[in-house]
Design a protein that fits this description.
Layout lengths: L1 H18 L2 E7 L9 H13 L4 E7 L9 H6 L5 E4 L21 H7 L1 H12 L2 E8 L4 E5 L12 E4 L1 H9 L3 E4 L5 H6 L5 E5 L14 E7 L4 E6 H5 L3 H35 L3 E4 L2 H22 L3 H9 L4
Parallel strand pairs: 1-2, 1-3, 6-7, 6-8, 9-11
Antiparallel strand pairs: 3-10, 4-10, 5-8, 5-9
Helix pairs in contact: 2-9, 6-10, 10-11
The structure holds benzoyl-formic acid.
Benzoyl-formic acid (173) binds next to strand 8.
């Protein structure tokens, strides 16, 4: 009888631990209640609703609580349990994370074709993290400028960047300066930069529309912002708690493509109404601009990750 009793009591202890409410500390790399934090805030609300009594996310907030470029290290070290961030913000810990911007296939396909698995292995190894869900997809980046340009030649222009745009803007001859989103307004106001990289959405969130004359079309790549969980924090959870996170993650990732399709259309109209003019490259010029964007982007990834980079490219790029 004895071994059976030990077995049962061990089971009871495990159940009691899993049944206790666990609190996870969360940070976002974007200002609270703006375009790129809102999907995450919806994710949190669903978790806290569904997880009542077993799991709660304590939302610490955005860049006021933690500088965006420090989020990766904080997640890796377990200072926070959950993060909402773009890969560009933690290339110091995981250079490959910036490759998400180059995906030309939907996440549903990448989760089947090996692309997600290849990335997940790097998240585990370099960031000590689980990649839970991509909440921003199908949302192109653009170049915004305050001096008119007539061709894709950025010689003489000083542009605000993150790693997302560095290789591309430099390949076009631009001079680049990296800043967190929170410093873009002041950089524009003081004329420290002549323009910046940013997706189609969100330029109204921090008032940049007041300091923006032109948007350059076409857009390139697709923005990525995702929910990441510290691996140790994840492994401490019981199955029911993990399922609460999985369910909210799946919903968020499934919603992203359609949500941003709608969002993109709205933002184009809103920018036009605010007097932001469009500089549009067309035909072969547009094709060459986009080809250069992807060429420079992949070259940058492969330069930093010579063995994994080419594999990611196979999984991520459009089927030819
Ligand atoms: O421009 C940025 O700060 C950046 O890299 C980014 C990435 C995803 C969404 C929005 C901005």
């Amino acid at each position: 009888m004895k071994p059976i009793l030990v077995g049962i009591s061990a089971l009871l202890v495990a159940n009691a631990a899993a049944a206790q409410e666990v609190t996870l500390k969360a940070v976002t790399a974007f200002t609270e209640n703006t375009t790129y934090s809102r999907p995450f805030e919806r994710f949190i609300n669903r978790v806290n609703e569904d997880g009542k009594g077993i799991l709660r996310i304590n939302y610490i907030g955005g860049p006021k609580a933690m500088p965006p470029f420090e989020v990766g290290n904080a997640l890796k070290g377990g200072v926070i349990d959950i993060a909402n961030a773009a890969g560009a913000f933690y290339t110091n810990v995981m250079p490959e994370a910036d490759a998400w911007k180059l995906t030309q296939r939907p996440m549903a396909e990448l989760r089947q074709n090996g692309g997600y698995d290849a990335m997940a292995a790097i998240y585990a190894q370099k960031l000590n993290a689980i990649f839970l869900a991509r909440l921003v997809d199908n949302n192109p980046f653009h170049l915004y400028v305050n001096k008119p340009i007539v061709s894709p030649d950025l010689t003489g222009l000083k542009l605000r960047i993150t790693p997302v745009y560095r290789d591309f803007f430099q390949a076009l001859g631009g001079t680049v300066v990296q800043t967190a989103p929170g410093e873009v307004y002041t950089a524009l106001e003081r004329g420290v930069v002549d323009g910046y990289g940013w997706p189609i959405s969100g330029i109204f969130d921090l008032g940049w529309n007041e300091k923006t004359k032109y948007r350059v079309d076409p857009g390139f790549y697709t923005a990525e912002v995702s929910v990441l969980v510290n691996k140790n924090s994840w492994e401490r959870l019981g199955e029911a708690q993990k399922n609460v996170l999985r369910k909210s993650a799946e919903r968020g990732e499934a919603e992203a493509v359609a949500e941003f399709a709608e969002e993109n259309e709205k933002e184009i109209k809103r920018q036009a109404a605010a007097g932001i003019q469009t500089i549009r490259f067309e035909g072969p010029t547009a094709a060459a601009y986009l080809a250069k964007a992807y060429q420079a982007g992949w070259d940058g990834i492969i330069r930093q990750s010579a063995t994994t980079g080419p594999k990611l490219k196979e999984f991520f790029q459009k089927a030819r």
